TrEMBL record, chain B:
The modification 4-aspartylphosphate is found at D53. The keyword Phosphoprotein applies. Keywords: Phosphoprotein. Pfam families: Response_reg (PF00072). Transmembrane segments: none annotated. One of its GO terms (biological process) is phosphorelay signal transduction system. Residues 4-120 form the Response regulatory domain. This is Response regulator. It comes from the Bacteria. InterPro entries: Bact_response_regulator, CheY-like_superfamily, Sig_transdc_resp-reg_receiver. PANTHER family: CHEMOTAXIS TWO-COMPONENT RESPONSE REGULATOR (PTHR44591:SF25), STRESS RESPONSE REGULATOR PROTEIN 1 (PTHR44591). It comes from Rhodobacter xanthinilyticus.
Automatic annotation (TrEMBL), chain C:
The lineage of its organism: Bacteria, Pseudomonadati, Pseudomonadota, Alphaproteobacteria, Rhodobacterales. One of its GO terms (cellular component) is cytosol. Pfam families: CheW. This is Chemotaxis protein CheW. InterPro entries: CheW, CheW-like_dom_sf, CheW-lke_dom. Residues 10-150 form the CheW-like domain. GO terms for biological process: chemotaxis; signal transduction. It comes from the Bacteria.
Amino acid sequence: MATDPMAEIRASFFIECEELLESLQDALSDMDEGNYDNETINVVFRAVHSIKGGAGAFGLDALVGFAHRYETVLDELRSGRLELTPEAMKLFFHAADLLGDHVRAARDAGPVPPGSEECLVELEKLIGGGAGPAAEEEVTDFQPMGLSFDFGGALDEDLAPEEAASELPVWTVVMRPSAALYASGNEPLHLLRALAALGEASVLCIEDSPADLDALDPEAVTLHWQITLTGDITEADIREVFDFVEDVCQIDITEGAAGLPDLAPALSSAPTLAALPDSAPEDTGFGFFEDLPAPAPAPSAASAPEPSAPPAPDSAEAPESAAAVSAVIAPAAAAASSKEHAEASATVRVDLDRIDRLVNLVGELVINQAMLAQSVAEAGLPPNSAVMTGLEAFMMLTRDIQDSVMMIRAQPVKPLFQRMARIVREASHAVGKEVRLRTEGDKTVIERLADPLTHMIRNAVDHGLETPDTRAAAGKPTEGVITLSAQHRSGRVVIEVSDDGAGINRPKVRDIAIAKGLVAPDAQLSDAEIDNLLFLPGFSTADKVSALSGRGVGMDVVRSSIQSLGGRISISSEPGKGTRFSISLPLTLAVLDGMVVSVAGETLVVPLSSILETATLSSEDIRALGPETNVIHVRGAFVPLYDLGAELGYRCPRANYEGGIVLLTAQENGARSALIVDAILEQRQVVIKGLQRSYGHIPGVAAATILGDGQIALILDPADLVQNASGRTRGPNLALAG
Amino acid sequence: MSLTVLAVDDSRTIRDMLKLALTEAGITLHLAEDGVHGLEVLEGIAPDAIISDINMPRLDGFGFIEAVRGQDKHRATPILVLTTESAPELKARARAAGATGWIVKPFDPPKLIKALQMVAG
Amino acid sequence: MADHSSNTSELELLSFRLAEEEYSVDIMSVREIRGWTRATPLPHAPAYVRGVINLRGTVLPVVDLSVRLGMAPVEGDARNVIIVVQVGSQTAGLLVDAVSDILALPRNELQAPPELAADTAHSFIEALTIVDGRMIRVLDLGAVLPDEASEAA
C-alpha cells in the first residue's frame, strides 16, 4: 500500500516514535530515581508496545523484532513477575537507547544497530531466558472448536447422496448460539448473511421450545439455526465466518445436506424457506426470516493475498462477496457531521535560520510600532481618535505575533539533555566507572551546544571522575555525579557542567604546560591561571589517548565554538571535590524586559531579570572602602558601589552621589553589586540587536537596542561590567574615550 | 456502505491508518485517543461498531469495553478489539468484558472491513 | 559623469572630503550615504570608533575616518555625512565631511602611494590618482575597517 497517504502516515509514525521514545526515557528516568508507580511502568510498556504496533504496519521487521522482545520483558515487569533491580534498570536504559537506534535505522534505511542481540539476550535472562528471535507469536484468531455431531435429532442420511450428486460441495451447518453471543454484541443475522455470501444457502430457524409470546424473554436463547450451504466452499471458509463466536456459539459442520430435524412443528419442510408472514404467532422469528439475497458468483479467484499469516491460508474469500450483501443498514441517528475528534497536532520541521529571521522581523515590527506610537503621541492627537484606537489594536496584534513567534523560537532543551544522559551511560560503561547524570534548571538552550557539551561530559567521565575504587578510598560514593544545568541569569543563559570528581590536577597541568612550552618553567601562576591553561590549543592531559575524548579535540576547540556563539566559558575547580565549567551565552530570545535608565546623558537598558531592587542614594548609606572605592550599606550588608557613568567612560567619578539612583544586581556567584545611574526612565520590552564583534568585546555591554525615538541604547551585562570594573567612585581622572 | 464506526487507539499512527482504510471504504469514522476520550466521543454518536485498542492510558481497552457494555443502549453494539497481542487469556478477558471480536495488528484493511461487516452488517 | 562601460580596466570611485583633503572608495563597496546623526558611544572602544547608529533597524558602527587616519576628530554636525560601506561580512559607516563626486578612472591611472614611514595614514591608502589637478587618495577599506577581533574568554 505504497500510496502517498501511506507515505505521510509513515513519516508521521516516525515523529510519533520520537515522542514515544522521549516519554520512554522520561519514565525510565523516573523509575531509576525511585520516583514511579504502576502508571510509570505502563507508560514504559505502552511506548515500546506502540512503536511495535506501528512498525508492524510498515513491515519494519527488525524494529518489530527488537521491540517485541523488549516488550515481552517489560510485560513481565508490568505484571509484577519481574523485580526492578539496578541491573535490570541499566538493561532497560540500554535497550531504550537501542530501540531509538532501531527506529532511526528503520526510518533512514540504515544498518541494524550493533549489540542488539546481546542486549536482548541479557534482557531475556531477567525473565529466565526468552524464546529468542524466532519466538514471534503466531498471529492467530480464535482456534476452531472440534466438530461434534450433535444434531439433537435424527439425521436423515438418505438425503445426503442425492445432494452430493451435484458438482459443488454441500455443507450443513448447525449454529447454536449461547446467551453470551448476544451479550457480546454479535448478531446471528450477520453470520447468516456471511454464510449466505459464501454460496447458495437455505436457512432453517429452529425453536427449541415454543414459548408463550407474552412470557417470552427476548434475550433468552431459544433459537438455533440449521443452514445448508452449497458452493465451492471449504470447511475452513465456513469456520472463518464464525471466527468471533466460536467460544460463544456451538458450531457443527458436516458435509452433505442434513435432513430436516423434526423438532419444531411450525416449520415448513421445503429446503428453501420462503419469507414467512409475520402474522404467524408461533414463528417467533424476531424478524430474522427474510429473503436472503442471491449470493455472488462462487468466488474462485483469490483476490487480496494475505501475507501476514493467519489461519485461512487459502485466499478463496472474495471481498466482493461482502459487497453482495446489499442491505443498507441505516446509520442510527448519528450526527450528520463526520466531524473527527481532535487528532494529535501536526508538526513541521523548520530551518533554524528561518526562524531567526522571522524573530528579527518581528523585532523590527515591534520597534517600528513603538516609533509610530511615539510620533503619534507627539503629534498630539486626542486619545480616542481613530488613529489612537487603531494604534492600540495594532499594538495588541504585534504583541500576539511576538508571543507566538517567541514560542516557536524557544527551543526545549530536553532532547539535548536526554542525549547527554545517553552519552554518560555509554561513556561510563566504556571506562568502567559508575556515573549518573543530573539535570536541573530552566531549559531553553541552543542545539548548537551539543558538540561542546558532549566533549565536556566525556572529559568529565574520562578524566574528571575517579574510578570507583579511588572514590571509595577517598570516602566518596562509588557513583560519580555529573550535573548539567541551564539557567537564565542577568540576561544571559548560563549552562553549567560540573562533576564531583577529583578536580584539576594542577601540578600535573602546570608540568604539561611547561613541557609543551606553553609557559615558562619559572612562571608564577595562580590556581585560576593554571586552570585556564586547559584552554590552550594543543593541551591534553591524557597520558594515553582514550577511546572517548583524547583524540586531539581539546578544550580550546570547545572554547572557540562557544565563543563563536557569542558566549564565554570559565572553569573553577577544587581538588578532591570536583570541577565546574560555566558557559554563559548571550540571549537567544530577541526580546528582553529591561529597565531604561539615563547615565551621563546616555540612555542604557539594564535587563530586568538582573535587578534585585532599586533605591535612592543618600550619603549616609555610602561608606568608604578603599582610597577610591565605596560600598553601600543595604539591610545589614555592604555591597560594592559602581558608578556606571564612570565605568563606561562617560564621565569621571562624582564628588557627590546624593540623590542618585542605585540598582542592586547580583552576579553569577550570587555576590551583589550596586550600580549608580542618574535616573530611571521607564520599564519596557526591548528588541535585542547584536553588536558586531569587530571592535572587540566591550566589557559590560551585552547588546544594543533601538528605542522608540530611533536612538540606540546599549544593553548592559551587569555581571560582566562588575567583573571588569574598576570600582572607582571617588577620585580624579576617568576621561571619556571617543 | 455507510457504517458509522468509533475507533479508539492511543497511537496516532494507528488512528491515521484506520482513517485511511475505513474512510476509503465509505465508512464514517470517529476517533478517540484513550478509553476516557472514547466514552466522551461515544456520547454524541451512535456507531454501528466500535474498534478499540487494549493498551491505552487513562482507561484501557478492557475498562472501556466494560463501560460501554454497561450502557443500556450499547449492550449489543459490536466491539472489535484491535491489538498486537493475541495471548489466549487476553482474548478471554476481552470476551469476558464483552468484546464481539478480535483483530490483530498489523491489520489488513480488507480483513478489517470484512470483520466490521461481519459484526455490523 | 564618465561613460558607463562595464570595463574591468576601469574603476568607479566615490570621492569625498576629509579635513581639506580628498579621498575615495570603490563605489562597489558603498551601500548608501546618510546624513549625519548622533552616534551612541561605545564604552572602551578604540578612539576611532565614534559609536553606533540606527540604520533602519540595524546597529551600525561608525568610524571617524579622520581619527582612523591619525588626524583630528571630525566635528560631527549636520553638515557631515556617513558613508555606509561593506567589506566582506562587515558593514560600517565612515564619518566624513562631505561627499564630492563619482569618478570613473582607468585602473592604469592609479599609482601606488610613495613610502612615507612617518605617515600613519599611509597604511590605509591603496593608491593615488590625479583628477583635474587634485590628488585623490584611494582608501584600502579592508585596512580601514578592523579585522574581527577574537573574543576574550
